[in-house]
Amino acid sequence: MVSDLDVLANYKHTFAFDGDEAVLKAIFIRIIHELFDNTLNDIHHYGMPHLGGSMVVERFTKQDGLAVIRRPQDSDLIMRIIYANWRSMASKRGFTFLEFILTMLWANKWEIMRLYHSYTRREQYPKHVVEIDSSENFLTSRIFVLIDGGVDVNELRQLTPTLQRLVPANIVATVGIRMNIKPFDVGVAAVMKSYSVARFY
Q1: Residue 107 Ramachandran class (φ > 0 left, ψ -120 to 50 alpha, else beta)
Q2: Cβ pair 166, 97 in contact under 8 A
Q3: Kind of pairing, strands 172-179 and 137-147?
Q4: Dihedrals φ, ψ of 23, to 5°?
Q5: For residues 162 and 82, is the Cβ–Cβ distance under 8 A?
Q6: Which residues does residue 176 pair with via DSSP β-bridges, in sequence order?
Q7: What does the alpha-carbon distance between residue 160 and residue 34 come to, in Å, rounded to a whole number?
Q8: pLDDT tens digits for the chain (201 residues)?
């Protein structure tokens, strides 16, 4: 983190005419520090919020819709890293940032699959999406984000809307969790590989 800002640094070195003025100067400096230190330092970091205090990071992540990613067990450092990357990637966010967030939250317990659709059944799009790239299918603007079953389901349900907003505007993302149960029909997931999933929207 950047060192605290001392807005009175120059004033501290100004000349005091006599003892009374020196005392008044010291009182003024102490009052300013006691009343406004935190506020001034927070404002100082508004241009680089990932380097500011926890309140600055929280304020700006809320403003950019990333606060929901914050988890109680995570340190402020992780949230700073996520937000610093969010700001630096700018127009390159999309899939790159989604992959970064998934890795920060769940290490390697995730997979992103591009989805395809049958040419012959294109009138029924997107009912017949699959993850198989073949001459009979065309690439769609849909993806499936599959998370391993060991993660917290309630947490994933809360994070799903945020994860879906991280992809480019032309991409439709469906989020699901791998389930250790017998196959059952869940729409999109039913035509995929031999694992079962529960979908989140």
Answers
A1: left
A2: yes
A3: parallel
A4: -65, -45
A5: no
A6: 146, 199
A7: 42
A8: 445 667 788 888 888 889 899 999 999 989 988 888 877 777 777 777 767 777 777 777 766 656 556 655 556 677 777 777 767 665 556 677 788 888 888 888 899 989 999 888 888 888 888 888 888 899 998 999 999 888 888 878 878 887 887 788 888 888 888 765 444 444 444 444 444 455 554
